[in-house]
Amino acid sequence: MNLDLRIPMGLMFLIVGVIMSLFGFFTRGSVIYERSVGMNINLIWGLIMFAFGLMMFLLGRASDKRAAAEPIEGTNRPLGGRGHGIGH
Amino acid sequence: MDLTFIDWLIMLLYFAFVLGIGFALKRFMRTSKDFFQAGRSLPAWICGLAFISANLGAQEVIGMGASGAKYGIATSHFYWIGAIPAMIFVGVFMMPFYYGSKARSVPEFLRLRFDEKTRAYNACSFAVMTVFSSGISMYAMARLIQTLHVFDSIFLKFNLPLGWIFHFAIIISAVIVLGYIFLGGLTSAIYNEVLQFFLIVAGFLPLVWVGLKNVGGWSGLKAALPPAYAHSWRGMTSAQTNPLGVEWFGLAMGLGFVLSFGYWCTDFLVIQTAMASDSEESARRVPLIAAVPKMFFPFLVILPGLIAIATPTMTQHAMLQSAPTLNAPATPAPANDLSDPTKYGKGLIPAKVNPVTGQVMTDEKGKPLLDYDLAIPNMLLHYFPTGILGLGLTALLASFMSGMAGNVTAFNTVWTYDLYQSYIHKNASDSHYLKMGRWATVGGILLSMATAYAATSFNNIMDTLQLVFSFVNAPLFATFLLGMFWKRTTGHAAFIGLVSGTVAAVIHHGLTLPADAHPGIHGGWIAVTHSYPSEMAQNFWTAIWAFSTNFILTVIISLMTKPRPENELVGLVYSLTPKPVEHHMAWYARPKVIAVGLLALVVTLNLIFR
Fold this sequence. Notes:
heterodimer; A: 2 helices; rod-shaped; B: mainly alpha; Sodium/glucose cotransporter; 2 domains; two-stranded parallel sheet; 24 helices; globular
């Protein structure tokens, strides 16, 4: 299959992470955080999701570049990486 | 529920990505193998996460949270005993036969190993079950959306009747699941299952974190709960002294062996993801990779149930209502009256309310019943501010959809390969079967919708269906065990054994009754010859009886019938198949080494939470 899942998945987490952390940043000290025991959970968790998404995206892109290599014998997997690039 | 723009944005983004993945994969769907088997080209980690995500449907997230609130940490037996050993077994011992035999589905494996009738029986019962399960998932999701008033504000804004929310929820979930499977087949389903896996973790991990922080960490949680809640093995020697009402033998044999091996080792719903991986080596690793997150899932789905019980205040949360009414005048209820549900809740768990009368429902002793299924949804509402609430709700919806999607892809494969190609239209072109697979997806979704609507008009349909599934599934593992590990097993024996196992399950159910239940759907509809301490004990023993009947009859009939020549069984039976080569792998990558490590880990977890 020629679409590395990590690219769209990374993008989704990245975008949701940005939205949540920005929202969290602008609502600092708001009463809505009484629910989450005083923690600005939007900012904290948004940043964690952003980092995870970015990591996935970069890993997917990295293996995308290796996708031109020959597949390992007996599998459809390219040499040196598990992922595949888009549209090759 | 007060959702804001930000919550909707997160939810919409998720749906856009889900469908986007389907569109991106469409151009790779050239043959039926691409569509039904993901081209057998996916890496092990993706299949591994999809392997548990396919099982992470409605019953998992909502049901395990509910069970955590009801029974405590003992619920983790469903993971540590009821899943991990079976997942290890299927990876180490059974996957070489599924993957290596070139069978395209589990029923097809039965035809290769046994005969046509065994396959036909398994394919038909399986196809029916997948459609119904997917319908049950759909129904549960629509009910939950209604209960939580997710769409109420939108419907009010556009002046639409609130009674349409149920239909809207059914249609929207059907269209999305149909869309991405129709476009991208099994690959799309698997990719989305992985996406859903990460989303569920992302949505529930902060819930546990915030919840635990509020109740004062693990020690605070333990202090706020009855002592039995924090231990999984206390009182397991006798059925009377533990919350599950099951003694250790019934638990180990019924759940740990018969039911769990019957599900994880034979159900095409999960096996299909492993069979989509890119090599036999990867296929064997799939269940082993899946076992790691599975082992820690109790902390994600059971713990919120415990926290829900321990959370001090009971404010206004979702309670089941027959129809959501807006601006209903709040009539103060008189004291000591069952019409005030807020008085009978426990932590965040509300009392169960009869949707018709509005009264609190009670058991036979007059004790109010609690609506444990709302444990997780109420946790989300209680602890999540807007923003992350959108994420949590999306995770909840994702869990319903992944359960639905796995069933639909299993259905379209079994229908097209095992029923249509085998009995209705042989020797057609590959593109014909690809087209059939797409339309089978549509058919499967339509049948699921029909099931969901049937569930709204017949109160007991969900319990009845689940009961029937348990009768059909209970004996299955004996057939696979004997088929793969005893070359003498014959097709006639397998078929008769399977059918008799199901009959034995039905008879056992008809003759026994759990304590405190009336004869009927709960059992005892023939005569009551034995009474079990709990319904769970009855379930486990029904499975044990079905398995044993199948096992014994298959052995006896095999000995009386003529076995197949050994050369036909190479690749299908353990003793006649060359062992998978492992010496080129690093020692730590070998399935058996990983298996031992996983077992050690699960024993450790049990010791910590004993």
